[in-house]
Amino acid sequence: MAEKQPAVRMRHISKSFGQVKANHDVDLDIYGGEILALLGENGSGKTTLMNMLSGIYFPDAGSIEIQGKPVTIASPKDAFEHGIGMVHQHFRLVNVFSATENIVLGLDESEGFDLKAAAEKIHAICEAYGFDVDLNQKVYEMSVSQKQTVEIVKLIYRGADILILDEPTAVLTPQETEKLFAVLRNMRNDGKAIVIITHKLHEVQEISDRVVVLRKGENVGEMITAESTTQQMTNMMVGHQVTLNIERPTPVDPVERIRVKGLTVRDDEGVLKLDDVSFSAFGGEVLGIAGVSNSGQKELLEAIAGLQGVESGSIQYVGDDGQVQELTGKDPYQISSMGVALSFVPEDRLGMGLVGSMSITDNMLLRSFRDGKSIFADRKAPRELAEKVVGDLEVDTPGVDTPVRRLSGGNVQKVLVGREISSSPSVLLCAYAVRGLDVNSSYLIYDLINKQKQSGVAVVYVGEDLDVLLELCDKILVLCSGKVSGIVDARSTTKNKVGLMMTRLKGGEAA
Amino acid sequence: MIHISKRKEMPLSQSMAIRGLSIVLALVICGVITTILTGLNPIDVYATFFSGAFGSARKIWILLQEIAILLCVSLALTPAFKMKFWNLGGEGQVLMGALATAACMILLGDKIPNGLLIACMVVSSIVAGAVWGLIPALFKAKWNTNETLFTLMMNYVATQLVAYFIIVWEVPKGSGKIGIINQSTEAGWLPQIGDYKYLLNIILVAIITVLMYIYLKYTKHGYEISVVGESTNTARYVGINVPKVIIRTMLLSGAICGFAGLLLVGGTDHTLTTTIANGRGFTGVMVAWLAKFNPFSMIASSFLLVFMERGASEISTIYALNQSFADILTGIILFFIIGSEFFITYKVNFTKKSEEVEKADV
């Protein structure tokens, strides 16, 4: 394959956002007639790299050649002119338009506009590649997978022969994934260059011809899929000799704190998110929650924190004296008024846990502004707390009056976690607490969690990195499409077993 | 290629310099346009402009009074806007306050002692404005209706109500006007401090300005308003009752608008017309926005807008130009002031053609 002219040749591409290097000196070749998997952990710079190819971002340095010719891609329009199309994780479709209308939308056609002819051409494309889509259906009536199909057809209709798909299977069922893969193979056989961005190894194995691995924004190697094992890919993805070595103190006298029984939750659109979930979280233990993304983790934590309506079931808090208090249907203020010290580090740090435009001090105030009878909010205590958190957790900031939005991801998380543990909680809920953080910040967060555990806090930790879950937690609850597929002892189980339970392939415990 | 990116933060001196420069530029352009269109000497025109605002003691008092009323409406809108509740109903809320004031003066004018009458006027104007603010807030809180359209529509309802009552109370019958209310008894006229007709209004608004600053910056309510405005998700996360904050804040916003109606009817005009609010419900939005919702900066932005309006209308009077000419000048100046905010927030880089970028990269 080396003699072949690559459809895309990217050389020495770098891109930084502020101080964060999203991509550093990346070389990448993409060939026609091949499916390339771009593999890497969250935050490894896969999407950023492809966004530069599709004109969303402009590289700080480096060059791009298409079919051997140097080009400048400054906008999505430029990308289209070079035959590059990208399907983003969030679709860009007009809901009230039909599939056909969305596909032709925004095209300049100088000599009049013939929707009928366009529909025929689209139909021919669908026939050729095996797309299954009703062209007259309105987008708002479509399932996620149908919308994705429309996005792909749109790109092909516009003449794209280099297609990039950003985590296309994250939102699909296994059957839909199969269908998508069949279509992708047809397109490959037709000579198109296809890139799929993913972090799921089994998909890489199933669909790709070649794998390029990114780690921390750099290209760390490539391999031919057929000649490699998932173990090799994992090693390359996480770096060599992955020894996490997170300290894990043995729980001392765990006592039951949170008791969840038969919890069932639907989202605003009526989709079942949690189905009959029951478990207990113990003080002095870390309970990990594992599952593929969007299996109900977010809803579970938000239901406990009082932010998510509950359809049925109950959430109870067991106090020190064994007294049971009902948390179901209470809002966060009512929960704290009941004397239940519940802290929550949500997934959306700047959109929920903190207010980006406010200073560190004012963000500390979020939890304490009601204190005291005065009509004035006391900023003295929060300021002291802010200074303490900045000092203790080594937050890198010009001062406590700096808006948190201007801090880096790791520092934002330190501020949030620092505030949440400052109230000496008895229950600590964490969602993806180390997502996007560098190694040092991550370890600092693990340490904080362990300290909370040792002081008797019931920690519920939702994570996506199985290695971390296995090393940090005492028990792991595995969610699969909103159901509990099992609760395992983190010390004795294996990554493989948890992985299978997440997908219920042959997990054994599948209901 | 033009590359536009957001600036980090600009020192105050620099941003003030940009604002100052934009006003100078605006005046130069206004001068050029005046000369081209009318053949007048631009220096004379500017002199007239200033004399329109500062020409005599009386003009200065009017200027201050106009600033006070505009500032009062702007202060009223500020908490709502800070909460990202787009209250475009200031006009209607002022009108309702004015209507309630006039109703007290006309119906109770000779029946109760003057002190009691004024107390009634104060209470009823505040309640009327607050109710007009409450209605859209309730709908927003309960059913998440669009407050922009709702408050806007409430303006028309208020205007029609006022029009109706003007017919009911018209003096003399058939004139379609109310005329000066209680001209002989001056019942319900807000007291005059010394010889200064407008001083009371100015002092009251100054007090509101300080109170609003403290309310927004230091109280728990003010903090809740900021959190709800920045992110309702965060507000929910810390257990802030978002509907309650929306309703409470709109009650306050409407109440102060109603109070502005009181100042207009009881303090200065002593009559009621459908145009008594004179667009301040909308101009106030601009005042608040230009000042970034800081009540003290709003003194400057309302001064600027009133000064321009007075100056521009003086030009059209003295030189017998159409009122539209004053509007053209105001428009040009506003365009430059608002435009300067763009350059304060964003940085514009002109990069040479793309080849150079590539060359640098290889």
Care to describe what's here?
- The complex is a heterodimer of chains A (511) and B (362).
- With 511 residues, chain A is α/β, with parallel strands linked by helices.
- Chain A has 17 helices and 20 strands.
- In chain A, β14 and β15 form a beta hairpin.
- The two termini of chain A are 46 Å apart.
- Chain B is mainly alpha-helical and 362 residues long.
- Chain B contains 14 helices and two strands.
- Chain B has a two-stranded antiparallel sheet.
- The longest helix of chain B has 30 residues, at 114-143.
- The two termini of chain B are 20 Å apart.
- At the A-B interface, β4, α10, α11 and α12 of A face α8, α9 and α14 of B.
Structure characteristics:
heterodimer; A: alpha/beta; Rossmann fold; six-stranded mixed β-sheet; 17 helices; 20 strands; 25% strand; disordered C terminus; B: 362 residues; 14 helices
Quick overview:
The complex is a heterodimer of chains A (511) and B (362). Chain A has 511 residues and is an alpha/beta fold.
Outline the fold blueprint:
The complex is a heterodimer of chains A (511) and B (362).
Chain A lengths: L7 E10 L2 E11 L3 E6 L6 H8 L7 E6 L2 E3 L4 H6 L2 E4 L11 H6 L10 H15 L14 H14 L4 E5 L7 H16 L3 E6 L2 H7 L2 E6 L2 E7 L5 H9 L16 E12 L5 E12 L2 E5 L6 H9 L6 E7 L5 E3 L5 H6 L4 E4 L3 H5 L6 H9 L11 H13 L16 H14 L4 E5 L7 H16 L3 E5 L3 H7 L2 E6 L2 E7 L5 H9 L8
Chain B lengths: L1 E5 L5 H27 L3 H13 L2 H26 L7 H19 L5 H30 L3 H23 L29 H20 L1 H11 L1 H6 L4 H28 L10 H11 L4 H24 L4 H23 E5 L3 H8 L1
Antiparallel strand pairs in B: 1-2
Number of helices of chain A: 17
Q: Which strand order does the major sheet of chain A show?
A: 6-7-8-3-9-10
Q: Please give the oligomerization state of what you see.
A: heterodimer
Percent of residues in helices of chain B: over 70%
Helix content of chain A: 25-40%
Main β-sheet of chain A: number of strands, strand sense, barrel status? 6 strands, mixed
Which structural class matches the secondary elements of chain A?
Answer: alpha/beta
Q: Which radius of gyration of chain A do the C-alpha atoms yield?
A: 25 Å
CATH class of the largest domain in chain A: Alpha Beta
What is the CATH third-level topology name of the largest domain in chain A? Rossmann fold
Tell me the number of helical segments of chain B per DSSP (H or I, 4 or more residues long). Answer: 14
Strand order of the largest sheet of chain B: 1-2
Secondary structure class of chain B reads mainly alpha
Shape of chain A: globular
Mean pLDDT of chain A: 86
